[in-house]
Amino acid sequence: MSKRLRELGIEIPPDEDTPLVRKLVAVIERLFDEIDRLKGLPELPKRAPVAPSPLSDDSAPPSKQQADRKQARKKRKRPKNHKRSKLAQLKPAQTITLQPDNVPADAKPIGAKCFIVQELNLEAVTIRYRRQRYRLADGSILEAGRPDHLRSQFGPNLKAFVLYQYFHNQVTLPLLQRQLADLGISISAGQISRMITEGQESFHAEKESLLAAARDVSTFFQTDDTGAKHNGKNGHTLHIGNELFAYFVTTDSKNRLNFLEAIRSPYTDYVLGEDALFYLECHKFPARVLASLKAQLGEQVVWESASQWETQLDRWKITNADHRRRLTEAAVWGSVMMHDLYIDQPFLSDDAGQFKLFGFTHGLCWLHAERHVARLVPMNQRQHAALEKTRDAIWHYYQELKRFREAPSEAAADRLRTEFDRRFLERTGWPVLNEALRTIHRKKDELLLVLEHPTLPLHNNLSENDIRQFAKLRKISGSSRSEAGRRCRDTFISLKTTCRKLGVSFWYYLRDRITGSAQIRPLGDILRQAATCRSNP
After folding, report:
1. Beta-carbon-side half-sphere exposure of residue 292 (alpha carbons within 13 Å)
2. Burial category of 371 from C-beta neighbours within 10 Å (exposed 0-12, middle 13-18, buried 19 and up)
3. Alpha carbon separation from 239 to 349, 350, 363, 470 (Å, rounded)
4. For FRET with 532, which of 1, 66, 329, 492 sits at 20 to 30 Å CA-CA?
5. Which residues, at least 6 apart from 33, have a Cβ–Cβ distance to it below 8 Å?
């Protein structure tokens, strides 16, 4: 009797256990196995018959199966490693001497045996500051001023704790207020909200500097997006980053214009010239409108802000929403070209349309490309065998690309290009699988961009892992409500993720910026230094 059928509550009476029924049960078992394979579930282990336990007979020698298992456990045993003690790296802030009880008078001290204890002091501290006042000879009053980092009734450590808990640990505002109340802090939900969203211009400026610093030293960028609710409406969060930094920006919609505006940061100008007009031609902009623009423009024209650009579109009487968007895309693209951004710095993505920009070097994630094959459902054993053989060949080729990244050469690149054609143009005997392979082959240049840029990753996992934080926020906190809240969420998650990649403590970073001690250098400078160290080990 099948175990799966018993789990479903189906029992086959002994008198109905015929060869036909057994054959049908075997077919059901294969269907269950195929469903598990498509879901990515692990295969059920095929258990060998359990040998009788020799525990009841002390004189019985261990069986061969038990001896094999014991030998396998010895091989799997982790070898001893010589790790340094973590306690040796700690610097004690206080030393307490303990004396034994009843020490005899004739006892001689022979030193001490030390042990280390790590402790955390988390308690509310209320401080009263007395600002001395003096009356001068002319009758005026001289009064001591407030320290720069004490402009409210809450101290810098408390502000850093609120930001750390909210953005790093993703503690919701009600729970954060309750936690502070348990610690003895008298604070309202509104005060916590203002502490999170107001007066953060210095953090916003440092976040905006990350992308500019990364453009100076990076050889590639990775990008992805995900849904992010704002004020009860669906929005989208864009991620741009690599192994050194992360930059997030949330907008109301997902399109190429938002991506262009994000990657040109911190510039805000709009440029119409040869590059922008060529962009419009390549995107099949209406010839009549394009000819009119060429006649009016003449030389390259620059608009410094979005309001000036919108006013110009109104003067040109561009009322069609699609035409206005396409013109704006061209003008932002012209700004990217004018400032010489992303020269020989490819972008890696999951093949979404908004990331494919004319004139940009663009690479594709192999994990997403292979899904064209992985999603196929074979209908018989021959198709199943062809699918498994093809997937094994794809991942074998993937391993060859990984080895190429470690030791790139022109000869290896030529061989891999030839091998790509052979693998993805072969006939498998299953037309649907053949078409999936042809779909991957049509993206050959983007999938093999690593042969020209060996530092480019083969997958987009880094970007997806970074942006997963916003998926967690959707489940925990729902959506942001104010524009300031949305901007702060993008800023602090960008800074937090960048600190982690650069090896900077986010807690000490927050305290340093809030107190103004400036002991931690700007993250853009640390990013540039980290890139230099990686390129010159």
Report:
1. 11
2. middle
3. 10, 12, 16, 10
4. 492
5. 43
pLDDT tens track for 412-440: 999 999 999 999 999 998 999 999 999 99
User: Which position has the token pair 């710095």?
Assistant: 345
Residue type, 149: H
For the stretch 264-307, pLDDT in tens is: 999 999 999 888 988 898 888 888 888 888 887 778 899 999 99
**Which residues partner with 247 through β-bridges?**
240
Amino acid making up residue 101: D
Tokens of 422: 């052979």
Contact 257, 329 (CB under 8 A): yes
Token readout for 251 is: 């907008």
Asked whether 237 and 467 are in contact (CB, 8 A), the reply is: yes
Q: Between residues 142 and 81, which one has the greater pLDDT?
A: 142
482 token code pair: 């104010």
| Residue 262 token pair | 């994000």
Q: Which phi and psi (to 5°) does residue 271 adopt?
A: -130, 125
518 within 8 A of 206, measured Cβ to Cβ: no
Q: Which residues 6+ apart lie within 8 Å of 221 measured at CB? A: 214, 240, 241, 242, 342, 345, 346, 347, 348
- Beta-carbon-side half-sphere exposure of residue 334 (alpha carbons within 13 Å): 24
Q: What is the SS3 assignment for 364?
A: strand
Nearest in space to 272 (alpha carbons), one of 230, 228, 313, 226 = 313
Mean pLDDT to the nearest integer, 253-266: 90
Gap between the Cα atoms of 289 and 285, Å rounded = 8
Give yes or no for a contact between 420 and 444, defined as CB atoms under 8 angstroms apart: yes
Q: How many angstroms separate the CA atoms of 170 and 158, rounded?
A: 16
Whether residue 50 has pLDDT greater than 70: no
C-beta of residue 206 within 8 angstroms of C-beta of residue 510: no
* Residue 149, CA distances (Å) to 13, 126, 488 in order: 81, 16, 20
**Can you say whether the dihedral through the CA atoms of 275, 278, 280, 286 is positive or negative?**
positive
Cα(279)–Cα(281) distance, rounded to whole angstroms? 5
Cα(532)–Cα(47) distance, integer angstroms: 54
Model pLDDT, residue 253: 85
**277, amino acid identity:** L
The full set of domain ranges for the chain reads: 3-31, 208-213+219-338, 366-451
- Give the largest Cα separation in the chain, rounded: 116
| Beta carbons of 272 and 330 less than 8 angstroms apart | yes
Q: What is the pTM of this model?
A: 0.79
User: Is 399:361 a contact under the CB 8 Å cutoff?
Assistant: no
Cβ atoms 349, 226 nearer than 8 A: no
Residue 266, preceding peptide bond in cis (omega within 30° of 0): yes
pLDDT tens digits for 401-411?
A: 999 999 999 99
193 token code pair: 């909200």
Residue 56 to residue 473: CA distance in whole angstroms? 56
d(CA 202, CA 523): 12
E-strand stretches of 326-423: 347-349, 362-364
